[in-house]
Known about the structure:
Layout: E1 5-7, H1 18-21, E2 27-31, H2 35-46, E3 50-54, H3 60-67, E4 71-75, H4 83-92, E5 101-105, H5 110-118, E6 123-126, H6 131-163, E7 171-172, H7 173-190, E8 194-201, H8 204-211, H9 213-230, E9 236-241, E10 244-250, H10 254-269, E11 273-275, E12 280-282, E13 286-292, H11 300-316, E14 322-323
Parallel strand pairs: 2-3, 2-4, 4-5, 5-6, 7-9, 13-14
Antiparallel strand pairs: 1-3, 8-10, 8-13, 9-10, 11-12
Helix pairs in contact: 8-9, 9-10
Domain GGDEF: 192-324
EC number: 2.7.7.65
Protein name: diguanylate cyclase
Amino acid sequence: MRALTSLEIGVQAPERSAVADAGRGGKVLLVDDRPSSYERLGPMLATEHAVDVEPNPSEAVFNAAEGNYDLVIVSLDLNDFDGLRLCSQLRSLERTRHVPILAIAEAENNSRLLRGLEIGVNDYLLRPVDKNELLARARTQIRKRRYTDHLRDNVQNSIEMAITDALTGLHNRRYMETHLSTLADQAASRGKPLALMMLDIDYFKSINDNYGHDAGDDVLREFAMRVRKSIRGIDLACRYGGEEFVIVMPETDLHVAGMVAERLRRSVANEPFSVHKGEKRIEVTVSIGLSTLEQKGEPIADVMKRADTALYRAKNEGRNRAVA
Length: 324
Ligand code: GH3
Ligand code: MG
Ligand code: MG
Ligand code: MG
């Protein structure tokens, strides 16, 4: 990758308002291969933004994708490159799909501008470019972009929160229940096994009673961490409620699931849990019930029931064990 020409952000700011400020201080990529043009536009933009000038349009897509820009400004009247093609490339790549594009064109290039707007150019300016108009249009695009990014982040956070257990960071019961039947259907249709584990921390009530509820929470968090370390990426671990957890393991038969359960049981029993910011160490054990999908189309509730029954036996047989 070749070096970009970076221009410093200038100090002078003309009229100030909250709306305008929300579009200042952006990171702008100017794609322009004519020195007479970018030597004029670059410094104008640099009064409000950090500007990279890319005089080689064939590298612009790569740089736009890597550079995390708030705005890409494309000269449609490039010497050796089709500016419209560049715009459509920017629109088709995941990394640059949402980056606003401001096109700059000669007035007589009306048809190209229309094409540009059709393929997703957000706004345009005609030459000769007026500095205040350039800055105003750039600010507007950057402000919109920041606002939609902010909305997108909020939506993503809400989705995360809806499917995540806040204490442990594992999936919650709702998420698991909505995905469990899908996983079971997939396993059945592909003729693959599916294993399910129900885990319940032993005598957890007495941990709360003896060391306090906060210590109980510390144990739950640490337990979730050890669960995460013992499973694969395709396994689904959730906090089912209180001190109960469920792990679903696609493409796993009872034999392998038994080994995973045993490894997890040992990782809990062999290493005391630290609570109260490391001031206290507590011995913890877990009981585990295992089951597998037995036949095609079997209701997943039946698989859960068998795991629950196995867990009940694990408790009755003395806890700190995995039972199928
Ligand atoms: P067993 O070996 O039979 O499983 O005994 P147990 O004490 O673990 O079982 P029990 O179901 O009687 O107790 C579970 C306790 O978990 C009771 C409840 O107060 C506690 N608990 C549930 N959710 C939380 C939580 O989020 N944080 C803490 N600290 N405790 C919780
Ligand atoms: Mg319980
Ligand atoms: Mg119980
Ligand atoms: Mg328990």
